[in-house]
Amino acid sequence: MRNIFLVLRREYLVRVKKKSFLVMTLLAPLLFAGFYAAVIWIAVGSVDSKTVQVVDESNLFSNEFKNTESLEFEHLPIGIDSAKILFPQSKANALVYIPKDVIKQPKGVRIYAAKNVSMDLKSGIEKTIEKQIENIKLEQAGITHKVLEDSRVNVNSETISLSEEGEKTSSSTAATAIGMFCGFLIYLSVLIYGTQVMRGITEEKTSRIVEVIISSVRPYQLMMGKIIGVALVGLTQFSLWIILSTIITNLASGIMTSRIAGISKVAGISEEEAVQATQANAVTDMLGAFNSLNLPLIVGCFLFFFIGGYLLYSALFGAVGAAVDNDADTQQFMVPITMPIIFSFVFAQFVIRDPDGPLAFWTSMIPFTSPIIMMVRIPFGVPVWELLLSMGLLIIGFAGTIWVASRIYRVGILMYGKKVSYKELAKWIFYK
Questions:
Q1: Pairing mode, strands 71-75 and 50-56
Q2: Which of 63, 219, 71 is nearest to 135 (CA)?
Q3: Is residue 272 part of a domain?
């Protein structure tokens, strides 16, 4: 254990003291928030205001086309032939022609433009015309606009889970978001930190440093020290990201509160009305939805499946790093290791639709897929026996992969200049 701790300590300190680790740990939350803010800003700012000319021979749509921040409609009191002649000299982006018999012949609507119009503009114009034609036909059938509006009902149901603790509010949206986020985080971390273990072992083997280390440390102890050391680096980084994200969230909340107070003073309204004006109710509802989940259970299970999945795959990555002499030779062995991880994330898209189905159950029991799939299922509620069985099988799977990896590691770490095949790896496992 002492030797494992020494290797662990060295791996941890060497990686944590790197400038790249410090920079990415401190800047990642800011970069992540800034990236999405920039995308939203660019998406909103890149949409230019467009002018659309309308020739309405039916005189039924004079008040239906509403101007927006990105669209401005201009009704022309001339015929379509004259409008088409004048259109190239105008600065308009599109010309909409609505025939006189549009109710009987809705396919007679035409949209003219110097070049193809966007799908958003085309669908927006079509929906406006369709809605007005429907209203006219309903009124002709004796159904007034008021009756039509009263018949439209938006159903926003509340989901409530029934358990031994009684009724408890739940949120399918929050469960889906948390489950997919945790699954994606495990998927990403296993690939990133597992690859770090493999490359670290390959570098030491190539530089022959490992020959000196092996003289005082057993191969198994060296491998375990590296795997656990990199795992602690990952947990340290995740912990710091959570702390920094919490600080940024609190600052953003403070700014939102100040903004609400400012709006209420300027507008002379109550803070409750100001909250509604700033759409803070949506944020409150979202936070309430997340609070309805069993967050302590989710966090605890995430740590277990993150560590278990990482240890299982890192052992295999470490075995590959010991078996080859350079990064180019790792590709042939990477595919069998990465495919279960990729399949897990693909299966998660189907599991999220049916968290209690056969696919969800079996993939959450197989150790190679359970870290991601089980984290997707947990926010929806998983029976205790299924959760314990999945954890137990993951521990058994980790023990098995460690045994296989250590058998390969002890032979491959000192093997140079030989192209290794799967048949050769199988022989190494059973060497005495």
A1: parallel
A2: 63
A3: no
